[in-house]
Design goal:
Layout (H helix, E strand, L loop, with lengths): L1 H5 L2 H10 L9 E5 L3 E2 L3 E2 L1 H17 L3 E5 L8 H11 L7 E4 L5 H13 L5 E6 H13 L4 E6 L2 H4 L3 H24 L3
Parallel strand pairs: 1-4, 1-6, 4-5, 6-7
Antiparallel strand pairs: 2-3
Length: 186
């Protein structure tokens, strides 16, 4: 308990999972959906992915954004995220959605045909703790992308009260990484 609360362990783990913070520029930004709430409302992780996607779109010279992720509700999360991204100023014709996937593995598999039709350099945007697994899943699916992590658990870990929620998120992600390795998906 003391280690998680009073040391930089959580920040260190978050940084290791995020990989390089190069914020690469490119032509196509691939944004993975995150959490969703009832009624097609996006959850906090999806909200922050939208905010960082808009910032990356403006800073990185991207021409297109692909948002991938369906969910189990009538309104796919990717559609709700698309609405927010367009509301925040990205031209609607610049945003494509994939709405059938329900996991990171499916995000990659269902994105392959879409991304293969879109020329140019592709960059993957997702949470810092999720980047390790997400990049490897997309690479395993045959897609060459660079990562643009945003500081999700990294920001949470800056305050002592945020370290435990961040630690639990990272612990869950480490479990998913182990599962994905056992499945041969990474």
């Amino acid at each position: 308990m003391v280690t998680v609360t009073s040391t930089p362990l959580v920040s260190w783990l978050s940084g290791k999972l995020a990989g390089p913070w190069d914020n690469p520029h490119g032509d196509l930004l691939v944004v993975l959906s995150g959490s969703g709430l009832e009624g097609g409302t996006i959850g906090l992780s999806s909200y922050w992915r939208c905010i960082y996607a808009v910032m990356a779109f403006r800073e990185g010279g991207f021409r297109q954004i692909l948002i991938t992720g369906g969910g189990l509700d009538d309104t796919p999360i990717a559609v709700t995220m698309q609405r927010l991204i367009v509301f925040l100023g990205v031209p609607a014709e610049s945003v494509t959605v994939e709405t059938l996937s329900t996991s990171t593995h499916e995000n990659a598999l269902r994105s392959v045909p879409i991304l293969n039709r879109m020329p140019g350099k592709k960059v993957l945007l997702t949470s810092d703790y999720h980047m390790f697994r997400a990049l490897r899943v997309f690479h395993k699916a045959g897609l060459d992308l660079e990562g643009w992590p945003y500081p999700d658990t990294g920001k949470m870990a800056t305050s002592w009260s945020g370290r435990w929620p961040a630690f639990l998120e990272i612990t869950l992600e480490l479990t998913k990484i182990a599962y994905y390795k056992m499945q041969g998906w990474i």
